[in-house]
Amino acid sequence: MSSFVVRAAVGPADREACFAVRKEVFVVEQQVPAEIEYDEFDAENADTVHVLAVGADGQPLGTGRLLHGDAAADKTGGDPSVGSLGRLAVSKAARGLGVGVALVRAIEKAARERGLAAVDLHAQTQALGFYERLGYVAYGAEFLDAGIGHTAMRRAL
Predict the structure, then answer these.
(1) Which residues have C-beta within 8 Å of that of residue 103, sequence separation ≥ 6?
(2) Alpha-carbon span 79 to 116, nearest angstrom
C-alpha cells in the first residue's frame, strides 16, 4: 500500500470516505464523541475544502479539510487571509507512508489557490513534532479540545 493519490473530495461518496477515516481515527481510536466530531462544516459549502488520500486499491487512507472565509473566522481570529487546517486523519494501516504530509501539502495548495497568506491549525500535542517538521510554529497556551491537549500553530504560505 505504498502508492496513493491525494485529491479534493468531490461529491457525497468522497465526503463519506472522508468521514469513514475520521470515524476510524477520531471516534474509534481516540474516543472523540461522534456528536462533536462532525459539524456544520462537513456539509458541502463554498468555504470548505475536503481532501482525500486514496490507495491504489481505491481504499480511503486519509483526509483533512481547509476552512476559509467565514467558515474559518472563529479559528483564525477573524483574519480573512488565514485558513484553518483541521480534521487531519490517517488510517492506522496507512501511517508512515507519507499520507499525512501529502494531505497537509494539498491543503496548503488549496489555501494558496484561494489567495490565503497563512494556514492555522490546532495540533494534538502528540503531533506537534509532525507539524513543526512541516514548517508550522506553535503559539499560545495548550488547551483541551474533546479532552485532548492541543496547541495552535501557524505556517505562512
Answers:
(1) 6, 51, 53, 62, 63, 64, 88, 90
(2) 10
- Structure confidence by residue, pLDDT tens digits, 8-41: 999 999 999 999 999 999 999 999 999 999 999 9
Count Cβ neighbours within 10 Å for each residue of 56-73 and write b for 16 or more, e otherwise: eeebbbbbbbbbbeebbb
Question: What are the residues facing 84 on neighbouring strands?
Answer: 67, 120
Q: Is the pTM of this model over 0.70?
A: yes
The identity of residue 135, as a single letter, is G
Burial class (CB in 10 A: 0-12, 13-18, 19+), 103: buried
CB 138 within 8 A of CB 105: no
Q: How remote is the C-alpha of 88 from its chain's centroid?
A: 3
